[in-house]
Amino acid sequence: MLAPRWHKIIRDLLAFPTRTVLVILSIAVGVFAFGVILTARAVIGRELQRSFEAINPVSAIITTTTFDTDLAEAVERLPEVAVAEGRRVVPARIRIGPDRWEDALITVLPDDGIRRIGIVRPQAGEWPPRERAMLVERASLVRAGLAIGETVVVELPGIGERAMPVAGTIHDLSTPLAVLTAQTFIYMTEDTLRWLGGPTGYNQLHLIVNGDRRDVTKIRAMASVVEQLLERSGHPVIQTYVPPPMQHSAEALLPVITVLMFIVGVLALVASSFLSINTISAILNQQTRQLGIMAAIGAGPKTLATMYMTTAALFGLLALVLAVPAGLLASQGLAGFLAGQLNIDLPWPVWSGEILLLQIVAGIAVPVLTALWPIRSALRRPVRELLSGETAPPPPPVVITLLTRILGRFLRRPTLLALRNAFRQRARLLRTLLALALGGSVLITVMTQRTSLFATLEASLAGLNYDLEVQLAHSYRIERIAPLIASLPAVTRIESTLRAPAFPVRPDGTDGEELALRALPADTDFFHPRLAEGRWLAGPGVREVVFSTNIRSKEPYLRIGDWVTLSIEGRESQWRLVGLIEVFTPPTMPAQAYVDISAFTDEQGGVGRTDTVRVATIGHDPASHAAAAAAIEQQLTAYGIDLRLIRTMSEERRILEERFNLATGAISIMALIIGTVGALGLTGTLSINVLERTREIGILRAIGASDDAIRELVVTEGLTIALLAWVGGVILSIPMSYALAYNFGMALLNIPLIWVYSFPAIWMWLGVVILFALVSSVLPARAATRIAVREALAYE
Q1: What is the b/e burial string over 184-214, where b = at least 16 CB atoms within 10 angstroms of the residue's CB?
Q2: Can you give the three-state secondary structure of 428-456, one letter per residue?
Q3: Per-residue pLDDT tens for 42-70?
Q4: Is 787 helix (H, G, I), strand (E, B) or coil?
Q5: What is the pLDDT of residues 367-407, one digit of tens each?
Q6: Which residues lie closer than 8 Å to 567 by C-beta, 6 or more apart?
Q7: C-alpha closest to that of 84 among 97, 69, 95
Q8: What gap in Å lies between CA 177 and CA 375, rounded to an integer?
Q9: Which residue has the higher pLDDT, 189 or 708?
Q10: Dihedral of the CA atoms 107, 111, 112, 117 (nearest 10)?
């Protein structure tokens, strides 16, 4: 047989089912959001690391002249090397539409498809690929809009093109993220590459260090030994690349996203706890006389506190019954979305034992802990005061009283009463406003983030005063290329430049990460970047270099004014660093370097030659760009000029927008979750207010108030709270969106975003919060109009 106190606890839960359901839902949504976000965060971090380690990632990559298997075996016999494997990589382009070409990278697979370093796994279709067919990395297949069985045209620069079928897909986690590179990764056998007209043999040596694979010093020492062997064998080293040891390139982008997810998850839990406080406070207010009676007959403060804390714990347990199963399913969805963007596979089911335990603890502890303050406040009151049943709240603030007097001439009495009622329980009002305003501030922040991203994109593109970039397969005399392009009707201006791979030589003599070097006129009219530090190139013939800001994360020792040694096509030369520019590119992508073309050709040769032509056209829309690109390709092909690729600004914009969708998609989901918590909080607050004013409503009904007047009373109170939350959300969003724009930009683009506050988001939030208020008022208003006068007057 249950003890009397358990009968009371159960009766309290069942006496007001609407209130009980609301508080359970509110806690459940908070615990659900907390669990989903933290589970996705933990699982993605864990599985990305596990999946990457499973492919046996490379320690160092050395690019050299063509070599054979014998040299790779000789390298593997070195004591510093655990595994050495030859690889052939060839740049190409593929046609994925009538007039649309895309950059591609061909990797040659062994005939059996098995690699020891950077292991690839078949996904669909044929394995290994048959001759004269290719495989496509699965993320590239989706991004390029290709399908298995489809025939595409593959072109090797300067050699020719052939139609080939897509025979299947593979999973290659060693490639950069497709959404960041805008490059299609394709795979074929050596015989197929030879059929395309490509070279044979290897041009890259992939190495795994013998020993601690996370020791970058040991890896660099191994690479140095291998370089010496290659040089002695007559194979000059073109490039040595040492990636962050045992770390996927996406791991550099995860911290800001995971920290943001953690903050939003905690905020959702905190917001849901406010309704728990409101509910326990309402129960204690309603049962003030009962508390006095129980205290008078011998119930001590500890007994009473335990009873009400048990009620709060039961709210949490019931919420967990809803939150845990729903959270496990939603975690699969959110983690699956992020995993798809990161190109990793997840196990089923997606879960984390530590997060599940934390979720259970939070589901019980949060309502119990938040109930301590109202329980303590109630039990500190004298028994005589409790027996009197006095629970009248303090009068509204003086400002509200004066405001209602001023507006009394213009507003109906129910509206004035609702305005006063909204401020009667000021602590409850504040908690409700915080929960609702948090949702609004996150919504406005998300939209401001998107606006800021596009503003930064536009500012970046505004410095590019050209519409197309024509990349040639190799360099040509400018006097041969320039007239062919400039004579086309759609072209207004052109500028000839040169590009080359380059590597900063570090103080210890090792090569840094590859740079995308561009030699262009110092007084160019086609490129006006935003300077982050220092200045632009001084003039023709001056040996100066300007880097993009993501060089800071790759070569942190560099300072403005330093002389930098660059290894360009195997030749080292000195350049003074004079500036850093803001370029819209992730930190994981190669840093960009700009030098004067005269100084470059004086050092490297190639005076009067170009391999990249920037083109300004009459039209600036996607259709004009596509037409101009087709005309240029047709013209150059007719005159025997070998093309590498034509990039249009429209295509660059589309690629960048794809990156934005990844960045803002997850944040939008989080904003929706917090908004839901806030809406439930508003519904709960209105329901509690109606319940506490049952006798007041009965008096109004007794003196003739109609159902419409009672309904107006509740709805107006909800709208008042909503409008206050609207103001609070707007105020909170200003510092929140500014901080996010700075940190998000630095993490994903290595430059702070240009903060542009989204004013349309303010009006959207106003519409959303009014809708929340109207929907949240439905149940309380319905309950208020159904209160019988006799029962209301007898209510205690």
Answers
A1: bbbbbbbebbeebebeeebbbbbbbbbeebe
A2: HHHHHHHHHHHHHHHHHHHHHHHHHHHHH
A3: 888 888 999 999 999 999 999 999 999 99
A4: coil
A5: 888 888 888 888 888 877 777 765 555 666 666 666 666 66
A6: 502, 503, 504, 505, 511
A7: 69
A8: 53
A9: 189
A10: -40
- Residue 755: phi and psi, rounded to 5, are -75, 115
Are β-strands 571-582 and 544-548 bridged in parallel, bridged antiparallel, or unpaired?
parallel
Helix %, strand %, coil % for the chain, to 5? 55, 20, 25
Q: Quick one: pLDDT at residue 176?
A: 84
User: Cα-flanking dihedrals φ and ψ of residue 203, to 5°?
Assistant: -130, 0
pTM for the model: 0.77
**String of DSSP letters for 355-403:** HHHHHHHHHHHHHHHHHHHHHHHHHTS-HHHHHHT--PPPPPPHHHHHH
Q: How far is CA 418 from the centre of its chain?
A: 42
Would you call 496 helix, strand, or coil by DSSP?
A: strand
pLDDT above 70 covers a percentage of the chain that reads: 90
Residues facing residue 567 across a β-bridge:
503, 572
Residue 794 has pLDDT above 60, yes or no: no
Output the six-digit token pair for 278. 């409101």
Cα distances from 181 to residues 140, 184, 590, in angstroms, run 10, 8, 10
C-beta of residue 137 within 8 angstroms of C-beta of residue 172? yes
Residue 688: in which H helix or E strand, if any? helix 649-692
Whole-number Å distance between alpha carbons of 72 and 63: 12
> Do 366 and 313 form a contact (C-beta atoms < 8 A)?
no
Q: Residue 184 corresponds to which tokens in the numbers above?
A: 């299609």
User: E-strand spans in 10-126?
Assistant: 60-67, 81-87, 89-97, 100-108, 121-125
- Listed in sequence order, the residues at least 6 apart from 511 whose beta carbon sits closer than 8 Å to its beta carbon are 239, 240, 241, 503, 504, 505, 567
Lowest-pLDDT choice from 147-151, 288-292, 606-610: 288-292
Q: Are strands 160-171 and 134-137 parallel, antiparallel or unpaired?
A: parallel
Q: What is the rounded CA–CA span in Å between residue 714 and residue 414?
A: 9
- Residue 269 amino acid letter: L
3-state secondary structure of 517: strand
> In the predicted model, what is the mean pLDDT of residues 136-147?
90
Q: What are the tens digits of pLDDT across the range 572-616? A: 899 999 999 988 776 667 889 999 999 999 999 889 999 999 999
